[in-house]
Amino acid sequence: MNLLALLHSPTASGGDTTTRRIAAHLSASGYSVLLVPPADAAELTAVAEEHRVLALVGTHALLSGSTFLETGLPYVLALGGTDLNEYTLEPVFHALMTKAVERAAGLVAFNDDFAGRCRTLWPQVADKVRVIPQGVRTTPSAYSLRRALGVGQDAKLLLLPSGLRPVKDPLFAIDCVKRLHAEDHRVMLVIAGVSYDEDFEAIVRRRCGSSPAVRYVGTLPRDDLHAAMREATAVLNTSTSECSPNALLEAMDVGCPVVVRDIPGNTCLVEDEVTGLVFADPDGLRAQVRRLLDDEVFARRLWRRGQAFVRRTHSMQAERAAYAALFRDLVDDLPPVVDVPSRDRIVRANGVELCVQTFGDPSDPAILLVAGASASMLAWDAEFCELLAGGSRYVIRYDHRDTGRSTSWPPGEPPYGLRDLAADALGVLDTLGVARAHVVGISLGGMIAQVAALAEPARVASLTLVATSPGEGVAGPDLPPPALRVLTELADVEPPDWTDRDSVVDHLVAAARPLAGPAREIDEYTGRRVAGRVFDRAGGRLESAGNHAYLDHGSPWRPLLGRITAPTLVIHGAEDPIHPVAHAHALAAAIPGAAVRILDGAGHELARQDWPDVVPALLRHTSDDEGRISRATTSL
Description:
- 39% of the residues lie in helices and 16% in strands.
- By secondary structure, it is an alpha/beta fold.
- It folds into three domains: 2-131, Rossmann fold (3-Layer(aba) Sandwich); 145-313, Glycogen Phosphorylase B (Rossmann fold, 3-Layer(aba) Sandwich); 344-479 and 541-621, Alpha/Beta hydrolase fold, catalytic domain (Rossmann fold, 3-Layer(aba) Sandwich).
- Strands 13-14-16-15-17-18-19-20 form an eight-stranded mixed sheet, with helices on both faces.
- The protein is globular and about 85 Å long.
- Keywords: Hydrolase, Transferase.
- Residues 146-306 form the Glycosyl transferase family domain.
- This is Glycosyltransferase/hydrolase.
């Protein structure tokens, strides 16, 4: 699939770097991305037609959005700092941006602060906004800033990686550091960044003058900038407004303390005295720099925490997965007349038609994801699937019977039982030519996985059982039932008008709320977006998903769990109200060698906030080659 990314910002600027990084992520995910310099709508349309472009991506809601509006193609906009901090203040620009975001297929905010501001400005597009933190990869060169400046190791370099623009406020830094230098001649400010305006550059240079306290070194190549950060005593940010400054993340990643102005765009990344230092005024900056100079142990602890934060929450792998998932959803939602290769497919398995979608390389170990009761494949977020695929896994998700685009029956009349659903799961593997797969099931899907592993153990390379239960023992139930509070809340959820999209979306989101841990809140914006897609994919048959409540589970399988030989990982929320945590321990006790991972605070869910722990655990658990395809893949 061909995409087009529009370049608006000067080379080596933050906006330009962001656009190219997003394009690189999409290219690595199998898309062909054409980078195009600024162009009007007619030029852009001509280029798109020539290269058979199906969708557009831009990093300015105004500059890209106003052009994209007139092309007629679907597009995604990443919201930059200039968009929300400056352009929205101009009525004409704001009106154009409103049209652009309303027509967009998706909107990207780099942090929760910007997502909240976007939703406040344009509540009508709240569900379109996705938070995708910027990924960081640093590659320091052999460049030495100290050598280039001709200063010794005793110099205390405060590096300001900043384009020369008033909003970046380099003049504030210059004045503050001159005073610091007067107190301690070792302190020196180095400004590195592109010049946007000759007149403003002249002002900066005049303010620097011939002072030994300040140097402007112009634009440094990216790798040299990373090397300079590694040598610096601290990296500063003195901007009066920001979006999500990637330079701060890069500084933390290479192990340099950061000292930042107290504005939302900075403090959404930097927690004062934890991952960096925050100041509000010149005296505050002076005091924070002095702390770093006077306490090396404190400075070392600060950068280590900052580095850990960045590597956990701003990985390039996570960012790539998020953009791949965004465009996967965009492609899936294109009109059926548009021929694209990555759509889901209908296969014939176990005597019924099932809708299947895959991620990753078919030659990698296969992971089959089995959703819970009444849930389609969308219960497994595309971004979660992309994260697993990025770990060299071939990921398979599918719609159960009576969900999504698979075969359905009238509500209340399911002519099948739990064991039929287990046979469906194995049938999906047959259609893809997968002899053995790592099977991951959540809730009812975990029960299906257990039954499948007992029925055909040779097909299951490993089991991962999430938020599920072993069912009843021979002597009857001995595990705690669902929490009465949650059952009452679920009973109070009003049935929807199954023909009305808004009514169904409200119903699905309301039904999801009680399942989260009591200390957690569900992401309602994501929930509403997914619920809308669930409704759209069901083709008017969504009420049939309730048939899973009538399933015949057959004879108890708990007494047989000791026969399972597949390596088993049990993942369970500590606050699961449907299957209290005792169910997890019962599973682990019944399955030989099973490991248990309890998610603090989690309910009956696999929430996004748990992914940084769950995804690596899954990749480790499925690290052997048992799930590799062993016969030719059947064309879908």
